[in-house]
Specification:
With 353 residues, the chain is of the alpha+beta class. The protein is 24% helix and 27% strand. It has helices at residues 83-91, 97-100, 122-131, 149-157, 228-236, 238-241, 278-281, 308-320, 323-330, 335-348; strands spanning 8-12, 22-27, 31-37, 43-47, 71-78, 103-112, 115-116, 139-141, 145-146, 162-167, 175-184, 188-198, 207-214, 220-223, 245-249, 264-268. Strands 3, 4, 5, 6, 7 and 8 form a 6-stranded mixed sheet that branches. Strands 1-11-10-2-9 form a 5-stranded mixed sheet. Strands 14-13-12-15-16 form a 5-stranded antiparallel sheet.
Length: 353
């Protein structure tokens, strides 16, 4: 298996930098995808969290047959019907007419024919991308144009999510960089779920809000606005939500605290990793619901604060009914839920479990 790179990420901006040093690309409402092409055009697809997207293997087996071996590309999986169709196709295994609308839009190249090209400028990488031959209609190269607010507004008017402005002379950087900026139609940010807040009044005894940590700033806040089906799922499967990344709508950030104003839940981002970095993995997991279904019950064991060796040991004990499983049961927790959390943390650190 090839070593999956970290994708380059754009910083949020309120408006387009109208500067001829930048170009403007559409911002797609899909799943980020990194594509590795091996020998004979065999393609492997990976999410932003480095999970293998094996369901895309049947996208079009011949699409990359003319691409040089040992090449990496960056792009987005999209569907005509929007993000929900991509989510369904890549997580629920839909292979019917819904899956037929899935395609991959490529916007960068990191490696071509065994040569790392990340140090080249965006302009030079774009030339390489345009010279690469993809077959069929399931793989496309993104269009681009001049960076202007009018171009951004036109894309939004056509139903787009926004745009991404990129410096022409920027190299490809693993992680977030100032040389790419995203301008969204709706102000959203990502956050990691770290706990649950009990409800009040008509929601007494139920989950009232999510306790989250903003992904970039690490600022803590609470988010509500989810529907009853989502609330039911949180209460029935708390470990499925703890550590996951969600998208938060808001009315801008407070200049004093950095907290989002009037944050509202938008959706889960199952294409994002659960606790991918150690600083995220070490956060306290608090106010987790036990079997009683009551908020504020006993706290689950803090697997995120453990070292790698201890975390591996706990995983084995949870799998085999050892001491860690007994400890979970004594606190009223399902050892399988603890195991799911521990494995998610381990995978986020790159530990093979």
């Amino acid at each position: 298996m090839p070593t999956v790179p970290d994708p380059m990420l754009a910083k949020a901006a309120a408006k387009v930098p109208e500067d001829d040093r930048f170009i403007l690309e559409p911002k797609y409402d899909g799943w980020r995808v990194l594509v590795y092409v091996g020998h004979n055009g065999g393609a492997q697809f990976y999410s932003r969290s480095k999970s293998r997207l094996s369901r895309l293997n049947n996208l079009d087996p011949s699409a990359f047959q003319s691409v040089p071996a040992d090449s990496w590309f960056d792009g987005e999986v999209v569907a005509n019907e929007g993000w929900g169709t991509v989510q369904s196709a890549l997580t629920q295994g839909s292979q019917g007419a819904e899956f037929d609308s899935i395609k991959v839009i490529l916007f960068d190249v990191l490696r071509i024919a065994g040569s790392d090209v990340t140090a080249l400028s965006w302009s030079d990488r774009r030339t390489l991308l345009e010279r690469t031959r993809f077959t069929g209609n399931k793989v496309e190269v993104t269009p681009y144009g001049e960076a202007s607010q009018s171009a951004h507004d036109a894309m939004v008017a056509l139903g787009g999510e926004g745009s991404v402005a990129k410096l022409k002379n920027s190299r490809y950087v693993y992680g977030r960089a100032d040389s790419w900026v995203k301008i969204k139609h709706e102000v959203t940010d990502e956050a990691t779920v770290v706990g649950f807040q009990p409800g009040k009044n008509g929601l007494t005894g139920r989950i009232g809000a999510l306790e989250v940590e903003m992904l970039d700033s690490k600022v803590p806040t609470t988010v509500a606005g989810f529907n009853e089906n989502e609330r039911d799922d949180m209460e029935a499967n708390p470990s499925r939500w703890l550590g996951t990344v969600i998208e938060v709508k808001h009315n801008g950030l407070s200049p004093r605290t950095g907290k989002p104003r009037h944050p509202r839940f938008k959706r889960r981002r199952d294409d994002r990793s659960r606790l991918t970095a150690d600083d995220k993995a070490k956060r306290e997991q608090k106010k987790v619901y036990g079997d009683s279904g009551k908020p504020g019950g006993p706290k689950r064991r803090n697997y995120g604060a453990m070292g790698d060796d201890k975390l591996r040991l706990c995983i084995r004990e949870l799998q085999n009914g050892g001491a860690a499983a007994s400890r979970a049961l004594a606190k009223g927790f399902d050892p399988q839920d603890d195991l799911d959390i521990a494995i998610g943390l381990a995978r986020g650190r790159g530990i093979d479990v």
